[in-house]
Amino acid sequence: EVQLVESGGGLVQAGGSLRLSCVASGVTFDDYAFGWFRQAPGKEREGVSGINCDGRTYYIDSVKGRFTISSDISKATVYLQMDSLKPEDTAVYYCAAGPSGWYDYGDEDITNLSSPDEYDYWGVGAQVTVSS
Which entry of 62, 72, 92, 119 is 20 to 30 Å from 6 by CA? Predict the structure, then answer.
């Protein structure tokens, strides 16, 4: 059984930092791409960042330079370091995993890592609240 368990959410003031963690079990970690999505009240879920098993990454424009995605295969964990947080970053953040291979995402389709269609498994989410 595949499980993705997020942690690290919380309440922080604007300009602060949080690090989300997603521990994956039931998957061969280096055969998967992982993504972070978020959903704010009344808004659609959006792909924030993704990382393929070959290390290629993607970020939406609104978080570039502020968020960093990384993975630790030894811990089967994906991280999202969030710095310079803004109130508009407030949302429930979800970790997602989908089977992938090296070089599956080139320059022309790396943005696909932000699409929920690329992922088969989802965590239950972690609340991130940024106060102004």
Answer: 62
